[in-house]
Amino acid sequence: MKIIKLVKSEFIKNYTVKKLVVIMLLLTPFCIGLTQLTDLWCNNVGNYENSHSVYRAHYEKLLQKENLTVEEQYELYYNKVNMETAQFLKENKVAANDWKVDVIRELTYALLDNYSIKILREHKNDPIIEAICNSENQYYYESRFSSAIHHTCTAYTDVEQDELVLNNVKLIDEYTYLLKEDKYYLYIQYLIDHDRIWKDDIDMAKFIIKNKVGNMNDYRALNYLLWTQLPITEIKKDEASWMNSDGPYKFPTYQDYVRYYTNVNKDTQSSQAILYYSSKHNIKHDLFFDKTTNVGQIDQYQYMTSKKIVDEVFYLPIIILIIVSVTSSGIVSAEHNKGTIKNIITTPIKRWKILLSKFIYLILHTYIIWIIGLGILSICAGVKYGFNDLFTPKLVYYNGNVIEVNYYLYLIKDLCIAGIPIIAFLSILFFISTVSLNTVLTTSVTTILAILPLILYYVCANFKTTFLFLTHLPFMYFIPGFIMTKQEWYTEIIKKTDMSLMSGVIISIITIVILYTITNIVYYKRDIKN
After folding, report:
1. Does residue 265 sit in the same domain as residue 411?
2. Same domain, 297 and 313
3. Can you tell me the distance from the alpha carbon of 287 to that of 302, in angstroms, rounded to the nearest whole number?
4. pTM for the full model?
């Protein structure tokens, strides 16, 4: 009970309304910044204004010329087609990951192929065309026109050209129909009918068709895109074939390669299960896919939910640790410098209880700041994307099944686990403050330690194995967001070594025990001179 009273007295001594307001003012810009960065990362709107302007400028310039050469005629048509497609995409505000982008790309190829064949037939005896067709260069890169004509005249006979024209006319009609109807599920049905969907993706594709998902803004459509970009990686069993391919450029050893992709495949199965459950049960997930994973440029397929913003709470320790360093570095030293420690020591309270109460206060103070940050992020997310998502369950893959759990309870559980490395940071602060009795020194050192993880992650990710010993130090785990959201630097590190939040928890617990024990010994033997 005495410890509780001592902790309470620490709060009375250190906490004021003014201090809480200042903490909120410091956290708010940081939370807003995280909101904007996350929104930018997941933004998938295409911008076709520049490309339309470029094609239009080239088209109008050629249009003004008289007696166009054969190549200029091709360039005129090429720019006309691309100008019109860019105009369509711009007017309809088509997102970069929209199915219509793929359809228009295929439509453009079909139109250009047919125009190449038309030019080839109309100018068959033209010396320029003959020179291009007779060239032995397999890949003709002299110009766009030369490449198109060379490919057409060398890849297809006259009969095959006729078949290509007919097939392209059919494709053009089919693509035009799909664009006119503007229904995503019709496009998926078209892909199934033409055997252009992997068998592993067929269940999700049929789900899209069955539920008539017509709009690409529908999160179920984006779930399907995510699904198709999450293949199970076939691990090379032959070490020699691995070494002769891309292995050495990405992984230090074959064992690292196998270990990494074994874990990636487990994550893939988990993500696929959650994506399917999310679509089937009408619950938006909060999976976050980094663009450097095997998914590729997956940021184009993200959709935003309020949960994705609130999940950024695991990046808040960057600012939280700085705030704690500035506001609490004198947790022990200030008492000695002011002489108020004598008032405490002269009471019949053991020193270890005094020290423990201060450490508990420091931990609670840090978690209070974190919870305030969580609240601000929740408000930012709710204002931007609505509060409804925050009250829907979190989808968790466990023991082969997807289960629904309360989002905030799950978040608090993760905060408690991710907070253990933060307590390791506090034990360092506590140790320096007790040993040095110098508040300025403690503030300076701990502020540097708060931003040190950013430097260490960069070093470990971008250099070979020289600095991997750093992953066995607690500093790498002070910002759990890198691990929780599988940030780019983190994915590069785990190609080289096993690094996880649980390993960080173990390292941090050892750090806490060692430093707190030393701090107790020093504090117990210290003479009170003031």
Report:
1. no
2. no
3. 9
4. 0.81
Total number of domains in the chain: 3
| Domain hosting residue 114, numbered range | 47-93+99-182
Helix 317-328 to helix 407-436 angle (10° resolution) is 40
| Structure tokens that stand for 369 in this block | 């700041």
State phi, psi for 160 to the nearest 5 degrees: -65, -30
Note down pLDDT in tens along the chain; length 530 residues.
Answer: 678 888 888 888 888 888 889 999 999 999 999 888 877 766 555 566 678 888 999 999 998 888 888 999 999 999 999 999 989 888 888 877 788 989 999 999 999 999 999 998 988 788 888 888 888 776 666 788 988 988 888 888 888 999 999 999 999 999 999 999 999 999 999 999 999 998 889 999 999 999 999 988 888 998 998 888 888 888 887 777 666 555 555 777 888 888 888 888 898 899 999 999 999 999 999 887 754 444 444 445 677 889 989 999 999 999 999 999 988 888 877 666 655 565 565 566 787 888 898 899 999 999 999 999 999 999 999 998 899 989 999 999 998 899 999 999 999 999 999 999 999 999 999 999 888 888 888 899 999 999 999 999 988 888 877 788 888 999 999 999 989 888 888 888 888 888 899 999 999 999 999 999 999 898 877 665 54
What DSSP string runs through 184-225?
HHHHHHHHHHTT-S-GGGHHHHHHHHHTT---TTSHHHHHHH
| 142 found inside a domain | yes
Q: Which of 153, 182, 211 is the last residue before a domain boundary?
A: 182
Residue 504 forms part of a structural domain: yes
Same domain flag for 51 and 132 = yes
- Domain co-membership, 216 together with 158: no
Task: Extract the tokens encoding 103.
Answer: 């359809």
